[in-house]
């Protein structure tokens, strides 16, 4: 239900952008998108904690879900990055933790989409697809956090990118939801990394951090 709500919110945003005037960005107003993601985040958080019995963990799960879903969408700005990153995260957490079987299946689905989005783009995720992958990663991360907080290293890449972008925008008095070219993907490209290499680099780092976390937990 959470994924349906988030994907539907993103799809409507994409639909309005596609049919809007060329001089007008269109899309849903940000409060409406925030409300849709907040509802989805509540649904995800309730799968991990009872808000009455564990209010603090519920609040943490809600916050992580809301931020991580946006973070994955933020990184859908370079061919293959969101799909490969989400695929790696979902496979690592899905196969390495006690997640239900649909989590690694979602990871394989993300990687199955990848040949149409990288290295040459023929299809795009859009907000609908990015939100769906972000919610899937959020579900896996929230339940992994229940097992061991160290497993959150698996989602460190999107969280770091989200944090530095939002902080920079606030410091520059720019609304956090207004897009720009300050993401880590853009930074890599600006320093000379070929655009086609950005997605593999991000996915490799995410998988390496996830495997490191699992190895550290198993060696305790």
Summarize the helices and strands and which ones pair or pack.
Elements: H1 2-19, H2 30-46, H3 55-74, H4 81-96, H5 102-113, H6 126-147, H7 156-171, H8 184-190, H9 195-218
Helix pairs in contact: 1-2, 1-6, 2-3, 2-6, 3-6, 3-7, 4-5, 4-6, 4-9
Which key features would you list for this structure?
220 residues, globular
Summarize the structure in words.
There is one protein chain. By secondary structure, this protein is mainly alpha-helical. Helices cover 69% and strands 0% of the residues. It contains nine helices and no strands. Helix 3 (55-74) packs across helix 7 (156-171) and helix 4 (81-96) runs parallel beside helix 6. The chain is globular, with a radius of gyration of 17 Å. The N and C termini lie far apart (37 Å). The mean pLDDT is 93.
In short:
This protein has 220 residues and is an all-alpha fold.
